[in-house]
Design goal:
single chain, 661 residues, mainly alpha, 4 domains, 55% helix, elongated
């Protein structure tokens, strides 16, 4: 039974805008009698959904089934003849059918149904590829052009419209108000979360750029890296080009690259590409961030405990267009940092007076050299346990022990911390960098000027604040060896001044632990460097490891970082060799048969015989002709490098009980 064109009560409207609010079209949702034809709710099952295909599909399928095996060409020619008799061709007919005709064509029920039947048909998606790229006929020659140009222009227009909508939709996520320029706003941004947001909010734009930036071959070959960050920054550059307020990511890179020391000319080049903000904006932003930080540190030093550190800094001042009054030069200055401690570290106002009284009494007493030379047995036992744990970890972390079944045994756990610094959200130390001063701090006069300048920056230079500092505050002042010596010299030089502030009674000079670590590494380098021909020296190890630039100790550049890595590697190699000796094996694999208790006993024996002062002393009492010089050198090295290793571990975890002295 064919469909009745005169009563299309099941017509599916492709657009609700075709009907008015008071439309009387049968089946229309806006019609008064629409309730008579309201369809039943669709079931969730796929079988039920398949039964509710559009009525046009069912009609087309029935017609196509009846035409199976018939001569379609003759029927098409008959239709074309009819159209020609009516004074029409295919373009005119399709235009009149699909919204291009007069008002009668757009409102006629049969024409509307035919239009809907065509536009919602299953055949239309299959026709479009053939329209774009028609199949070749049997004759030779060029492929028919088809509707390639029209379809491609239409596709470009549609894609452009969709991308424009998605870019407008994403614009609020890239907006960055000038009021949001703060440390909290800059550090809360997460690139991964923002990437996921863009994928959800702009799927067409993201998929298009993903196809542009990444091929299928790359996707199959690359398993670690992907184009996400590239696509993210392409969208960011486009948003910043559309509006200079859409620079959320652009501001992040501007702040970061400015901190890395990027030159002004490089900033201008990246700004032209839309990657960073202008150099002027970045300089102003740094000034604003600095002003806010200085206001905050001035409030903190009034109510919170704090310490301060300063050191010299060398800055090359470069210019791109040199003049007699504007040339590149090298300047020496001073950089300082204020460390604001938790409130638990706040001292009472009487601490200053108590500290001065204690120092005045103790300065006349002599300390005992025996207290320094003779170690406390409790401290010695604690440090030895730490050495044993280190030796065991060297073995258990080796590739040969990757499958050791007892690696999680209780005997292999680290010793409990002793007097460890508190940690957690309630014990966070805040760091504030003060303004770099154009004052050298190598001399006594320079340090005096630096301290006056730092007090001025912290707004502690008024007469009232100086009285409070001299009478109530106790300020630990941290620096390297030279800085501490200069501060102590100033205290001795000014000890007879009239008031506590001028006498610097509030200052407690403290050497920097990091500088101690560097000095200890340089000391090991100086003692054990040796030569390439010697056995057991650092130079021979550097040659084997192919480490360059470690032949001479330096204070500039990455020398200490390279030396620190080399010391850890050499220590690991020496201890593994010592394990072979105490275990009487030729490979560490053979030690996997040992129980945890047996390995612990071997670790104690290794330290007693190959990595302790006792072992070194015992070897020194052996006559020279009978002494194994290589073993003595290795044992002395193992004992000395333990001090450096444990100092590094104590500084890393903040455990004062692990300090090797």
């Amino acid at each position: 039974m064919d469909f009745d064109y005169e009563n299309p009560d099941l017509e599916a409207f492709e657009d609700e805008d075709d009907c008015d609010d008071e439309c009387d079209c049968p089946g229309c949702l806006f019609s008064d009698n629409a309730s008579d034809t309201t369809p039943e709710p669709l079931s969730d099952s796929e079988d039920e959904q398949e039964l509710h295909d559009p009525i046009q599909w069912e009609q087309t399928r029935r017609m196509k089934a009846r035409l199976e095996g018939q001569d379609l060409a003759s029927k098409v020619l008959s239709v074309l003849d009819t159209m020609h008799a009516e004074g029409m061709n295919v373009p005119i007919f399709m235009e009149a059918l699909c919204y291009g005709g007069d008002a009668a064509c757009r409102s006629n029920d049969r024409i509307r149904y035919a239009r809907t039947c065509f536009l919602m048909s299953e055949q239309l998606p299959c026709m479009l590829p053939d329209w774009h790229k028609p199949p070749r006929n049997h004759n030779k020659g060029r492929r028919p052009a088809g509707a390639r140009r029209a379809l491609e222009e239409f596709a470009v227009n549609c894609t452009t419209s969709m991308i424009d909508r998605e870019m407008e939709h994403l614009a609020p996520h890239f907006l960055s108000s000038p009021d949001e320029l703060s440390q909290e706003h800059l550090t809360c941004f997460d690139f991964n979360d923002f990437t996921d947001l863009l994928k959800r909010e702009a799927p067409v734009l993201w998929s298009l750029l993903d196809r542009i930036a990444y091929t299928d071959k790359q996707r199959a070959r690359n398993t670690c890296k992907g184009p996400d960050m590239v696509i993210l920054h392409l969208i960011s550059q486009a948003q910043y080009t559309r509006s200079n307020r859409g620079g959320r990511i652009t501001k992040l890179w501007a702040i970061y690259l400015k901190a890395c020391g990027l030159s002004a000319h490089a900033f201008d080049a990246l700004h032209a590409l839309g990657i960073v903000m202008s150099h002027k904006w970045t300089a102003n932003a740094y000034g604003e961030l600095s002003r806010r930080a200085m206001d905050e540190v001035r409030r903190e030093v009034q109510h919170s405990p704090w310490v301060i550190s300063h050191d010299n800094v060398n800055i090359p001042m470069r210019v791109f267009s040199q003049r007699l009054h504007n040339q590149s030069h090298f300047t020496s200055g001073c950089a300082a940092t204020v460390w604001v401690l938790p409130q638990d570290a706040l001292l009472p106002t009487t601490a200053n007076q108590e500290f001065r009284s204690f120092r005045s009494i103790r300065c006349t007493e002599r300390f005992s050299y025996c207290d320094i030379q003779d170690f406390d047995p409790i401290v010695h036992s604690r440090i030895k346990k730490q050495h044993i744990f280190h030796v065991l970890r060297i073995l258990l972390d080796s590739p040969e022990f990757a499958d050791y079944s007892h690696s999680d045994n209780e005997l292999f756990k680290p010793p409990p911390p002793v007097d460890q610094l508190p940690c957690g959200p309630d014990n966070i130390v805040k760091q504030y960098m003060l303004g770099t001063t154009d004052i050298e701090e190598a001399s006594y006069e320079g340090n005096d000027k630096v301290m006056a300048e730092l007090f001025r920056q912290m707004a502690l230079n008024s007469e009232e604040e100086m009285k409070k500092t001299g009478a109530e505050r106790v300020i630990p002042w941290i620096g390297d060896q030279m800085t501490v010596e200069r501060l102590r010299g100033l205290i001795r030089y000014r000890h007879e001044d009239f008031n506590a502030f001028d006498r610097m009674d509030y200052v407690i000079p403290i050497f920097g632990w990091f500088h101690l670590q560097m000095a200890l590494a340089n000391s090991l380098h100086k003692q054990y460097l040796g030569t390439s021909a010697g056995i057991g020296g650092l130079q021979q190890a550097f040659d084997i490891l192919k480490r360059k630039g470690l032949q001479k100790a330096e204070t500039k550049g990455p020398f200490w970082h390279h030396l620190d890595e080399a010391l850890h590697h050499i220590d690991e190699a020496h201890l593994r060799a010592s394990w072979l000796v105490v275990g009487k094996v030729v490979s560490l694999d053979q030690l996997k048969t040992k129980s945890p208790r047996e390995l612990l006993a071997l670790a104690v024996r290794l330290i007693d015989e190959h990595a302790s002062r006792k072992a070194v002393t015992r070897m020194m009492h052996v006559p020279d002709k009978d002494r194994d010089q290589v073993q003595a050198q290795f044992t002395r090295w193992n004992a000395d490098v333990f001090v450096y290793i444990e100092l590094t571990a104590a500084m890393k975890v903040g455990c004062k009980g692990l300090l090797p002295f």
